[in-house]
Amino acid sequence: MIKKRSSSNILPNTLGELELGVMEALWQAPSLDAKEVCERIPRFRKSSLSTVQSTLERLYRKGLVERNKQGHAYQYIASVSRANLLGRMMGDVIHLLHDGRLETILSSFVNVAADMDERSLAELEALIARKKQAREDEP
Amino acid sequence: MIYTLGSFSAIFLGFWLVLGIVFLALYPLLRSAFLALHPRLGSALLLAYWTGPFLLSLISTGFLFMPRVESVLVDAHCHEACSSHVPLIHSLGLASIGLAACTAVLLYLALRCARMLRQSWQLRTQFGFLAQNEGAYHLLRAASPLVFTLGWWRPRIYVSEGLADACSQNDLAIILRHEQAHQERRDNLRLLTARLCSAVLGGRLAGLVLSDLQLLTEQACDFRAAETHGHVAVAETLLKIKRLLTLAPAEVPAMAMAFAERDVELRIRALLRTQPRISLHSWQIAVLLAALLLSMSLLISPLHHGSEWLITALSGFHMHLN
After folding, report:
1. Pair (B171, B111) in one structural domain
2. Are B24 and B148 found together in one domain?
3. Number of folded domains in chain B?
4. Which positions 54-83 of A are in contact with B (Cβ < 8 Å)?
5. Which ipTM was obtained for this model?
6. B285 lies in a domain?
């Protein structure tokens, strides 16, 4: 049974280091079994075959990998691309910025949560244009 | 030992709460002065003001329990024996309540801090894994336009491909200078400190202080970028990025529309203001610090007597209940 996601996991698409390592291995090859994934994981993240198997199981339940049974072993295929996963995480970050739940962890250049109407934007544009004009007119 | 620890905890917590309420109540009177300062100075002073109740309470209570300092700063008075003394709770029940309340608050802060540390580490691990190091920043190969600085002690800048593609070289240089200022100033750590030190306070006024602190922090970084690129260019880039985000409605859920909606406008207007913001000379800051130290030392005696009065009153009430 899959464990309930820890409440301190800030992003719905949170992946642990080993999960990311496994995804990286699957992005590099069309399909792999658990043993092959284990061999391809970078040395600093090396884990036992059973740990990799349970990680693959977790990724399968999260819908990030697909699997087909071939003989006694499963062949795993990444079902989301690297860009897709990154896009999901960025979406999570934007949503959390809106909630104000990330304000002590990260600072963004422009507050994505703030909405401004077209009239205010146009007023600011006019203000900037006037300022530029005044600077050009200066002797 | 429990009597000393309990007394220290109760006085520290009570003084922190009282000072917090006083500082909060005074903020509407001081707000315009903070906002009139140069944002670099304004953000530093507002941070000091907002963390003041916690720090002042901790230091003053520490002094109160140091016999040497106490004998100098508290005017001589006698209770049963005329010796140097600290304000001590003599009831085990009251001392335990003080210690338990203080431990609960500090534990709550520690847990909150640990949770945020874990979240920050998670985000850093994931984006670190998926991002591409471009030297000055880390590139995220995603279409959503986003740029942010992540982390407390050694923050990293992340720029999405969507944003980098939509910007000119000059816009990107301005954005990076702004984010580097966040990196150098460790703004995420400053905001975390402000949030933790004011954890005993809540409400709209406390929210206003924190939102002003965030605004001044952003303005400080805008002004830092303006030193290199000019105020008008930074204002233009801000507006351009704001427009870019407005044009990406799929990424912006409607639920957040009311939150800090004047931020960008205030930042642009601050950059374009003709009259300069007020800065303080180093001697003026030294005078401020000296005044603070003097008022703190003058506070020790009333704090000592006030604590003794409160302890006597509470002990009497406690005995009456028993």
Report:
1. no
2. no
3. 2
4. 82-83
5. 0.72
6. no
Nearest CA of chain A to the CA of B316: how many Å? Answer: 44
Q: Where do the domains of chain A lie, and which CATH numbers do they carry?
A: 17-82 (1.10.10.10), 83-137 (no CATH)
User: b vs e for B224-239, b when ≥16 Cβ sit within 10 Å of the residue's Cβ?
Assistant: bbbeebebbbbbbbbb
Read off the pLDDT band of A15 (50, 70, 90). Answer: confident
- Band the pLDDT of B192: cuts 50, 70, 90: confident
Res A1: pLDDT: 39
Averaged pLDDT score across all residues of chain B: 84
Mean pLDDT of B92-106: 89
- Tell me the pLDDT tens digit for each residue of A38-93: 888 876 667 788 999 999 999 999 889 999 988 888 999 999 888 888 888 877 77
Ramachandran region, residue B182 (left: φ > 0; alpha: ψ -120 to 50; beta: rest): alpha
Indicate whether B291 belongs to any domain.
Answer: no
Tokens of A7: 């409440």
Q: Which amino acid is at B211?
A: S
Q: Which residues of B touch A100 (CB under 8 A)?
A: 259
B273 and B142 in a single domain? The answer is yes
- Whether B161 contacts chain A with CB within 8 A: no
- pLDDT for res B255: 29
Is B174 within a domain?
yes
Residues B94 and B1 in one domain: yes
Which of A93, A72, A75, A82 is closest to A37 using CA atoms? A75
State the DSSP code for A73. Answer: E
Q: Is B102 exposed, middle or buried (0-12, 13-18, 19+ CB in 10 A)?
A: buried
Binding-face residues of A in 26-55 toward B, CB within 8 A? none
Residue corresponding to tokens 């003084």: B15
Question: Nearest residue of A to residue B267 by CA position?
Answer: A110
Q: Residue B308's domain spans which residues?
A: 1-36+49-130+297-322
Tokens of B254: 């409607």
Contact residues on chain A for B161, CB-CB shorter than 8 A: none
Q: Which of B10-14, B41-45, B148-152 has the lowest mean pLDDT?
A: B148-152
Determine contact: A127 vs chain B, CB below 8 A.
yes
User: Do B19 and B101 share a structural domain?
Assistant: yes
Question: In this structure, are B97 and B121 located in the same domain?
Answer: yes
Residues B274 and B137 in one domain: yes
Q: How far apart are the first and last CA of chain A?
A: 76
Chain A positions touching B151 (Cβ under 8 A) are 105-106
Same-domain check for residues B124 and B141: no
Model confidence pLDDT, tens digit, residues B45-87? 999 999 999 999 999 888 888 877 777 777 777 766 666 677 7
Segment 5-64 of chain B within 8 Å of chain A by CB: none
Residue B44 within any structural domain of the chain: no
Nearest to A100 among B120, B257, B259 (CB): B259
